[in-house]
UniProtKB/TrEMBL annotation:
Alphabetized GO MF terms: [heparan sulfate]-glucosamine 3-sulfotransferase activity
Pfam families in the cross-refs: Sulfotransfer_1 (PF00685)
Protein name, as recorded: Sulfotransferase
Species per Swiss-Prot/TrEMBL record: Circaetus pectoralis (black-chested snake-eagle)
Compartment list: Endomembrane system; Golgi apparatus membrane
Disulfide bonds: C194-C206
Length: 248
């Protein structure tokens, strides 16, 4: 269910190597943009699975969509949810970098981040900032789902220890640990782990060229102000999920 620019594509591509998992490749956006098309439409998009297999889809914007938790709960209260999180400041910069590649004439990162920079007033209405307030969004999910049905993946560890993070995902899904160290190699040019072979072709598989873009250079003082802004949200998030992601 999220978050954008956290590593959701990597988790999806890594987990679908597992024989007990089938995944939809595209983002269906059912629980946010296409809900009026109905459950049968949603079902028709899904890969065919055996009783022993798990079906996975990913749409990162679900995490910040107010209606998504209730809608998913109404479909199935037993749904397992995976949330990939990363340092909210680097996530915001990555988000901005992606937007900039599509719309080169947008304002500066600093300009969008603050309502008043000298007063340190952060503009929480800007999506790139808002998404990183994980503790706030999580509250909506916890109204419908217990923490035991939500698994949090560290976007940072996904890069440094993909096998370890994917081991935990497999445990959470209740499937055998099939995806291990031997599935990964580190691609130095991209700075990301890649799969030695994908489910379909048996060839090495790295994420697309849009992944691992060089981030825009941001004034260190801006980064510091944003770190201060996110700190209370991060701490509350760690306390709620019982996991320290070490972003401080």
């Amino acid at each position: 269910v999220g978050v954008k620019k956290g590593g959701t594509r990597a988790v999806l591509e890594f987990i679908r190597v597992h024989p007990d998992v089938r995944a939809l490749g595209t983002e269906p956006h059912f629980f946010d943009r296409n809900y009026d098309r109905g459950l049968e439409w949603y079902r028709s998009l899904m890969p065919r699975t055996l009783d022993s297999q798990i079906t996975v889809e990913k749409t990162p914007s679900y995490f910040v969509t107010k209606e998504a938790p209730r809608r998913i709960f109404n479909m199935s209260r037993d749904t397992k949810l995976i949330v990939v999180v990363r340092n909210p400041v680097t996530r915001a910069i990555s988000d901005y970098t992606q937007t900039l590649s599509k719309k080169p004439d947008i304002p500066t990162f600093e300009g969008l981040s603050f309502r008043n920079r000298s007063l340190g007033l952060v503009d929480t209405s800007w999506n790139a900032i808002r998404i990183g307030m994980y503790a706030v969004h999580l509250e909506s999910w916890l109204q419908y789902f217990p923490l035991s049905q939500i698994h949090f993946v560290s976007g940072e560890k996904l890069i440094t220890d993909p096998a370890g993070e994917m081991g935990k995902v497999q445990d959470f899904l209740g499937i055998k640990r099939v995806i291990t160290d031997k599935h990964f190699y580190f691609n130095k040019t991209k700075g990301f782990p890649c799969l030695k072979k994908s489910e379909s072709s048996g060839l090495p598989r790295c994420l697309g060229k849009s992944k691992g873009r060089t981030h825009v250079q941001i004034d260190p003082e801006v980064i510091e102000q944003l770190r201060d802004f996110y700190r209370p949200y991060n701490i509350k998030f760690y306390e709620t999920v019982g996991q320290d992601f070490r972003w401080e």
